[in-house]
Amino acid sequence: MAKANHARATWTPEMKKQFIDLCLEQVKLGGQRGSNLKSSAWAKVREDFNKKVGVNYDQRQFKNFWDMLKKQWNTWKKLISLTGIGEVAQGQTVQMEPERWNEHIKANPDARQFRYKPLPYADKMEQLFGEVTATGDHQFTSANEDNPLDDFGNWPSTSHNPFPTTETFSPHQVPPTKRISTLFMFSLRQTTRTSCLTSDANAHVPPNR
Length: 209
Prior knowledge:
Layout lengths: L12 H16 L3 E2 L2 E2 L1 H15 L5 H22 L17 H10 L14 H8 L3 E3 L2 E3 L35 H28 L6
Helix pairs in contact: 1-2, 1-5
């Protein structure tokens, strides 16, 4: 077995495309967890990439490249989402006035790389990173095996009711707003019950003579 190369990895445009394609293949097979790949998916990407390209990169080198690509994508996405930019076709650069470019680069230095050239393989990177949606402190994708939501973004329930009337669910399964609503209703029921008991008790007390 060849010894892994721990030196800094070199990535040509073709190697970059090969890596993205292999990662996308694993994502389509359900190998994504949140904003990362599962361990089994990483192992397959590493095996196939090293065999096809003729290198022996290790997991750290692949993960570093993944993080770099994701950072590029986030920078590009922020750039093309600016007001007035409109749709940027594949392979096209972003057109802005020099003054606006200077302002954006001052606030986002990493965007400088896209002033005169677009993000390579932006369509593929959209598929790889664009479907990950942040929700609170968690990140979910349709391929995330830890995702408590179904494919339509709903909370699962065998009765098709996301919040059953019987309080049998775990607090961790229910959004904060639902927990607050549940506590409020419980408090209201208790208050109403106490009021009824007090009224019944007063009804049996003989009047003072």
